[in-house]
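Subject: sequence -> structure tokens, single chain

Hey, anyone have a minute? Need the predicted structure for the following. Not urgent.
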Amino acid sequence: MRCVARRTGVVSVVLLLASGLAAGGCASHSSSVATGCFDKHAAASGTGDAPGGPPGSAIAASWALPGGNLQNTRDVASPITSSNVSELGVAWCVPIESTGRAQAAGYPDGYATTPVVVDGVVYLQDLESNVMAIRLATGKVLWTHNYSSPNGGPDGVNVVGGVVYAATNHAAVALSAATGRQLWSRTLIGNDHEGIDMAPGYNRGTVYVSTVPVNPTVGEYLGGGKGILWALNARTGVPEWSWDEVQDLWGNPAVNSGGGLWDPPSFDSQGNLYIGIANPGPIAQDGWPSRYPWGTSRPGPDLYTDSVVKLSPQGKLLWYYQLTPHDLYDWDLEDSPVLTTANGKQVVVDGGKAGILIELNAQTGKLLWKLPVGVHTGHENDGLNTENDTPTSRIPLPAKFILEPGVFGGIESQLATNGSTTFAAVNNLAVPLTVKGVSESSAAFDASLSKATGEMIAVNQDTGKIEWDDKLPSSPYGAAAVTNDVVFTTTYSGYLYAFDAATGAILLKAPLSAGSNSPVTVDGDYVIVGAGVPPSPGEHALIIAYRLGAKGKLPDTVP
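Reply:
Had a minute. Here:
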């Protein structure tokens, strides 16, 4: 289940659109840019874009893909270093397009994704599936394509060959990168208990999009909601193959649900895919069906939830590693697997809401090391028989206990690596649980969310040992991003942080215009940040571009 972009809530049933190709003409053009934070020097200074490099290179030349490159290392080359990062200033800012339907559907913010930058244009998507293109050098909005289709997030786009690939809460779509005109649309959900809320993956002419058992307008993890990965022809949207992440829903589709991707697959040089799959349902967060406490409607390991899975380019299962069999607590293994090296070998590093980092052999899926991070209250093996490591159907737990990582804790957002060290943003947020589920009102939970703390950690990939661990006063839902010797994240309380990659020393702590639930993009001498958590009085939901040497300031008002 999704991070703080998601809340349980049932509003109205959305009508499913017919599948197939459909031309769209609802793009709107605008030259607006938020006043009050525009840097008058930006237009004359150029974009600072690094020249484009081959997709999937170990260190990308620019942030042209959702995870920086095909391996999702979130490591890019730029002029920004530890010696000049403090010189970042506001270049421009643009209001987030979301009009509030996401909040009406029970989601607390309007934006949660990582922008991409292609040919000097920033492309992004909000939690209502609206897509926007912004000129990097000036902050001018070139076009928007409004879908008004709320989903669970984090969303995002992938831009290749002049085409923007995105998704609504029910369909994969392709738009013209120049105009925002819709080129095709392909409905993928099988029923109204499913949705889509990820940035599509792209490799070698194929677009990859997964469904997830969440539709904000209906509910979350309702019976029959499945995660299915679709491989679509990038030119037409026609399906090439699909892979069922949860098979027959473990024999009880009337009650069970599960699977889904939050973020794009990673790709190796042979075109193999690596995906991180979300949790099974029902789970304790939403309350168990009265006949099925502790997941007894789905006994067994509930494959392939909470797993890293490697697929061939044709969709054949090559291997899987399941971190949490028979998950009771919403511990998705949701982050894009990171392809990197350790001890001279190709490895996969991943982490998720269980608050555990893992490293796997990329060829075999064998576990190389496992590292719990952040605060844990000792429930990692609930649901497992310790003698033979197989799930049991009855769990001897107290009537009420504190669970941490909680439902919005652990490693909620993407990892980054510089090739030898993995960086992870960790969230420490506990929740009280009973046999009936979360035993706390939504108001109390929101209050605890605002008081949650976090950590940014650096882990040696050869050894699996922590190199440094910085404690933070707020949850760093902003993932990790690396450039040179600097690591970035954002916090829920509304700050942009920069750390020294070698020591963890805090190099920059800059206030945002509101709280943040979204990662950053580094492109040239720009750092692009989304501040989309509903603002308090005097705060504003904005996309903010920082640039080395810029002198602009955040606005007092937003038109």
